[in-house]
Amino acid sequence: LPRVLSGIQPTADSFHVGNYLGALRQWVDLQATHQAFYSIVDLHAITVEQDPADLRRRIRVAAAQLLALGIDPQVSTLFVQSQVPAHTQLAWVLECLTGFGEAGRMTQFKDKSARGGADRSSVGLFTYPILQAADILAYAADAVPVGEDQRQHLELTRNLAQRFNARYGPTLTVPEPYILKATAKIYDLTDPGVKMSKSSPGGSLDLLADVKASVKRIKSAVTDNEREVRYDEDAKPGVSNLLRLLSVFTGASIPELERRYEGRGYGDLKGDLAEAFAAFVTPLQASVAGYLADPAELDAVLRAGGERARATADATVAAVYERVGFLV
Ligand code: TYM
Known about the structure:
The chain contains 13 helices and five strands. By secondary structure, it is mainly alpha-helical. The longest helix is centred in the C-terminal third of the chain and has 30 residues, at 295-324. One of its GO terms (biological process) is tryptophanyl-tRNA aminoacylation.
């Protein structure tokens, strides 16, 4: 079977619909056709300051959400990044192949460090994409399901794999991004010009948020001054974003939805999306609560996944170390 690897940061108390539609839905689907490795990337989470108690809680909440969404730990290897030392071992070798300027051109680093100021950004934030490359290359992943915002990091990963192979001989698998166009970028509800993110207060739609509060957010989502429910990303970014969400949550195509709302207003569209979203998250939240009720069992599932992940990733590190010239 071809392999997939992907990761998600445990940096918030809930995943949002951008995470779900951009990546996690594909994680679940790809289990059927691929050997899958899915990681809660806690090492990446500490590139910005984290409270230890929050981090520990969020790792478990992340795991519970992944299980509730349909990641089957018997089928996929679900693990916590810090429990697999091979990631940091491989990252060092890759760091030594990465140009300083090359790393400095990563737009997520530039955005995040611009916000905090250069002196307040860590070196870890700078090398973040190289650790991500190690995550992927350690498992010889063929495909990496992510949202559009990760495309540049995937390009770096491909370049580093090719560079390693050119210098030391064919060793690493060059991965392809797996980005579904229709849901690659979900936008903020209060500002449809920017992507939905964990740090946007009020504009994200969180899977574990109080359902009534989410309904309110949907109903006050920014649209435009027209009345026509029509998909047009440039002229009508807010309405198009809502249509995209409704399409996924109901299974109806966008043209179908455009026909359904002909002659009807944005209120109807928002009301139906609120209903569909509530119907999706209500059982999900109950399922998450069930997993969180037994943290010892959750930790055991993750430890078992970590063991399986180590077996695969250690083999890659051994091959890489041998190629580089270390004594093995
Ligand atoms: P993270 O934790 O920020 O996000 C997890 C996944 O959600 C996607 N995503 C979105 N997709 C569509 N619209 C949005 N508004 C949106 N917001 C987030 C992200 O693209 C991602 O797929 N660097 C990664 C984590 C990572 C990783 C990896 C991913 C570490 N190592 C190895 C893949 C492979 C990140 O910060 O994702």
